[in-house]
Amino acid sequence: MGDEDRLVKQVSLKSEDFSKWYLEIIRKTELADYAPMKGMMVIRPYGYAVWENIQRLFDRRLKETGHQNAYFPLFIPESFLQKEMAHVEGFAPEVAWVTQGGQDKLEERLAVRPTSEAIIGSMYAKWIKSYRDLPVLINQWVNIVRWEKVTRPFLRTTEFLWQEGHTAHATLEEAQRETLDILALYREFMETELAVPVVVGRKTEWDKFAGALETFALEALMTDGKALQMGTSHNLGQNFSKVFNIRFEDKDQSLRFVWQTSWGISTRLIGAVVMVHGDDSGLRFPPAVAPLQAVIVPISIGNWKETVLPTARRAEEALQRAGVRVRLDAREEFTPGWKFSDWEMRGVPLRLEIGPRDVQEQKAVAVRRDIRRKVALTLDSLGEAVPALLADIQAGLREQARDFLLKNTHITDDYEEFKRLLDTRRGFLRSHWCGARDCETRVKEETMANIRVIPLDMEEIPPGSCLICRKKSDTLVYFARAY
Ligand SMILES: [Zn+2]
Mind listing the pLDDT tens digit for each residue in 124-155? Predict the structure, then answer.
């Protein structure tokens, strides 16, 4: 066990120092590294593979729901950003500006896109003329720059990758339906593919996207008890169509402004997967987004290269044919034990061990990363047995995360208990709230928790009194400390 121990000990324990563990495990497993510029990171191949899986799985859902991909410029003229006042005020503190091209000072500064409502709005004004042009359902997968003061890999970096959807509709109802359909699509995607359960709801009026009518968000609970915003979907109303003059001739020949939405998820989701599923031995990837779903470790004893290796190769080929992302780790410079803990740390969902006796018996020992259970599989069944095990692991991780979310969601309208719970147990606190900003501000100042969402499914909510002012309330909200 000597060398395995050493490997794991190079990283802090998640259960002891969550924040240190997070930063260390990301670099140790080669998901990402710090870039030379402050607040920026390099997504390494192992981390980028997770993003590619997220892209592929979510892009498929977008296409199935009628959305198309396009690409809009990285630079946005300052005058465009300034057209929507709330929008420019909201983003001004974190915009990076280009003021010079080559030797020439620009006549007008160009913003490096912090989000693309403005540039896309200007193009929609040219493209949309008639009700026949609607709806417009366009998405782009791009990078974004926001000059953040406090950064953390994947969770908040100056530059990050995301998808941003921008749609235009004939009516408010259609725009609202799109906003909520996307919210539901995000939720299904996060719970199915990332195995991360979320609470969904509306943001408060003062916490909504700069320029939106309404913002909806998805919030997940990290294992340190802090919430993480996983994605947002905005109903932009006519705020942008009015300033960019995006009008269409309706069936009755009247000219109307379109109704718009925008929505996004980003590389932050990789950070969520790390935080939600990781444990003291390292990462635990849900198979759906894992860079590698299975690793085959031949037990290197005796003349293993003649006996074990050919069998391991055949197992690798069988799994590849079954569509499993698999690697055969035939490196000679490491012992099997070292490889076990290395792949465990990297979060590969399934490890297959094949030794000389397994070759004789025509089987492999499969070890699940999620619950560490071992199961013997016959070699000729790998093509069916491994995908079935991966599906079990995916479901198991989702179940664990759901249990954690339920166990760490507390309900109280008693502010003293609220504070005690927040200090001792953390997590989500569901409390009645009167709707006043002052009441939220007091909670924020005194506990560092704020309202994450006002949940959408309100039908079963018993009336109560506001956590702070004791006024009657029929609104339950989710409070938490957040990233
Ligand atoms: Zn109140």
Answer: 999 999 999 999 999 999 999 999 888 999 99
Query: Could you tell me how far CA 318 lies from the centroid of its own chain?
Result: 32
| CB 296, CB 339: distance < 8 Å | no
Residue 282, beta-bridge partner list: 279
CA 222 to chain centre: 12
CA–CA gap between residue 204 and residue 219 (Å, rounded) = 14
432 Cα–ligand 1 center, Å: 8
- How many residues are recorded in the chain? 483
Distance 336 CA to ligand 1 centre (A): 60
Ligand 1 mean position to 212 CA, how many Å?
Answer: 25
Q: Where are the beta strands (DSSP E) in 132-198?
A: 136-145, 159-169
Q: What is the pLDDT of residues 181-235, one digit of tens each?
A: 999 999 999 999 999 999 999 999 999 998 899 999 999 999 999 999 999 999 9
Closest of 231, 44, 49, 268 to residue 153, by C-alpha: 268
Rounded to 5 degrees, φ, ψ at 361 are -90, 0
For residue 465, how far is its CA from the centre of ligand 1 (angstroms)? 8
Q: Is 160 left (phi over 0), alpha (psi -120 to 50) or beta?
A: beta
Q: Which residues, in sequence order, are CB contacts of 478 under 8 Å at separation 6+?
A: 199, 201, 219, 227, 409, 428, 429, 430, 451, 452, 453, 454, 455
Q: 237 C-alpha to center of ligand 1: Å?
A: 28
Whole-number Å distance, alpha carbon 451 to ligand 1 midpoint, is: 13
Give this prediction's pTM: 0.95
Measured in Å, residue 43 CA sits from the centre of ligand 1 at 44
* Å from CA of 204 to ligand 1 middle: 14
CB 76 within 8 A of CB 111: yes
Q: Are 461 and 476 in contact (CB under 8 A)?
A: yes
CA of 459 to the centre of ligand 1 (A): 21
